[in-house]
Amino acid sequence: MLRAIANSMVACNAQQIKLDTTASNIANVNTMGYKKNKVIFSSLVYQQIVKEQNPVLPDKADNIYDGTGVKVAVVDKVFTMGPLKETGHPLDLAIEGPGFFGVILPNGNTAYTRAGSLQLDKEGSLITSSGYLVAPGIKLPENYQQIMINQDGKVKFNDATGIPHEIGQLELYDFTAPATLQRVEDNLFLYTPAAGKIKTGKPGESGFGTLKQGFCEVANVDLVEEMSLLIEALRAYQLNTQAIRTSDEMWRLANNLRKI
Predict the structure, then answer these.
(1) Is 150 exposed, middle or buried (0-12, 13-18, 19+ CB in 10 A)?
(2) What is the reported pLDDT for 260?
């Protein structure tokens, strides 16, 4: 009974993490560029049951093992591409394929994001919706009339006379293991050594996606799938709490036994 309670307790802890993770995915279903998390479980150690110590077992019970529960092995990030949503806004960019936008943080470090809902600050610099400068740093003049961003990342604008001018080049970044990036606030990711070498290139080059102006990549969250996972985790949590209550009741009955 003690082992049943212990096994159910660790299972409740694991399912609680899955509940929290799934709820976070559902809450960000409308967040541009959001990448969902996925909980992966692994079994804890198994113990072999020795017949000499358990005489009630049958004679051929030589390979019976007793599990000690389950744990969360990793909360993995899923970087599959989300659907593209047409916005018509000239500063909205979607990456079709692999790659991240670079974002310059106030401390000078570079963060990375798939969210391409961009804006212009008061000085005409291209920034994210959270106000961070987009690498490598592109600034439009005050008299620009129209902005064009090609699939290969070239940024152009038309002046007051309608003459086009090229003003900069957007770059993309990618990693050997993007799932190991550290997620931080504002839908940004920070580099970690486990992510491997940072690869930099222009959109459309080998290994990088292309840009699509007037579109945004929405979250790669399937609401129906996440609701199913939420119900599954909730039922598993309820099952384990019921197992704890049942084991506790059996223990109480055993403690109250009286010899006649």
Answers:
(1) middle
(2) 47
Domain boundaries, the chain: 2-79+221-254, 84-217
- Residue bearing the bigger pLDDT, 71 or 203: 203
**Helices first, then strands: H and E counts in the chain:** 2, 20
**Residue 95: both structure tokens together:** 């990456």
The whole-number pLDDT of residue 10 equals 87
Beta-carbon contacts of residue 188 (< 8 Å; ≥ 6 apart): 103, 111, 112, 113, 130, 132
Query: Is there a cis peptide before residue 55, judged by omega within 30 degrees of 0?
Result: no
Residues 137, 138, 140: CA angle, nearest 5 degrees: 150
Supply the pTM of this predicted model.
Answer: 0.80
At 36-62, the pLDDT tens digits run: 999 988 877 776 666 555 655 666 656
**Cβ-contact 180, 195 below 8 angstroms:** yes
CA dihedral 208, 213, 219, 223 (to 10 degrees): -120
